[in-house]
């Protein structure tokens, strides 16, 4: 993939001695740290100074798309509207959809006369991003990884609800979400079957409702309804945690309970973290960044080591600082 010469020319003979050190990846998988120093547009050769001080050169076709994008991004000013538009198109075609969305925003801000071009290219971004999410979901389901499939379906429904692919995504969520979520506690249900009939009956009912409401929020075609369902799901989760705590105190000498309670607690926390992140994603798309950050922080309060919550908080901070354009 190649940017038009007008943008590539910005890299010609560019020395970047003050630039921060970057990591660049080759298609072979090798990762090199250092700085881009120049680009020969005619030969499509990138010059690079490694952290060890070695001067190396690579043809453009030996670098992976993300690395090429990062190099372009480091030298095309935000004030260059046309350059940002071309960079956004490159990112979109390379599958870097978040980066593309941000660059379209920069292009429109730098040059309002590009608004129509940004809208046209942004519509293409939404189409290809929706198809990519759906393809990832289908691929994961084919491999038997329903959890991964549901992740991609949720992304599509939250970020691209108006694209044609959303209808199929909703049907796939209806078909597989509850089944995959409920399968997580099958072994525990068998081990604690008698307690589920008595002491854990209330907790189990709210756990199942939490799963159902999470799913229904994903497939809701109305933001207000989705938000209401997810908040109810969180209340269900609170009840489940209370019931687990009560049971653990009631049977301090029952090995099954003392072993099973932490597992049920973690399953419940994982589900509640997911719900908080669904809310955070919805608020971020609506540019309600304070509300989104509140949800991300709530997720981290439940699970401080959650990689997904930490990543969500970083995305929200970036969106808040730089602005966000819908996929």
Secondary structure: elements and pairs:
Blueprint: H1 5-8, E1 22-25, E2 31-40, E3 45-50, E4 55-59, H2 65-75, H3 81-93, H4 97-110, H5 115-142, H6 146-159, H7 165-183, H8 186-191, H9 193-197, H10 201-219, H11 223-250, H12 255-285, H13 289-302, H14 307-322
Antiparallel strand pairs: 1-2, 2-3, 3-4
Helix pairs in contact: 2-3, 3-4, 3-5, 4-5, 5-6, 6-7, 7-10, 10-11, 10-12, 11-12, 12-13, 12-14, 13-14
Overall 3D form: elongated
Q: How many beta-strand runs? A: 4
Number of helices: 14
Can you write the helix and strand succession as a string?
Answer: HEEEEHHHHHHHHHHHHH
Major sheet: order of its strands? 1-2-3-4
Describe this structure in words.
This protein is of the alpha+beta class and 327 residues long. It has three domains: 1-75, SH3 type barrels, CATH 2.30.30; 85-183; 184-322, Serine Threonine Protein Phosphatase 5, Tetratricopeptide repeat (Alpha Horseshoe), CATH 1.25.40. The protein has helices at 5-8, 65-75, 81-93, 97-110, 115-142, 146-159, 165-183, 186-191, 193-197, 201-219, 223-250, 255-285, 289-302, 307-322, and strands at 22-25, 31-40, 45-50, 55-59. Strand 1 (22-25) and strand 2 (31-40) form a beta hairpin. The chain starts with a helix and ends in a 5-residue tail after the last helix. Mean pLDDT is 85; it is low at 1-20.
How would you summarize this macromolecular structure in one to three sentences?
By secondary structure, the protein is α+β, with helices and mostly antiparallel strands. Helices cover about 70% and strands about 10% of the residues.
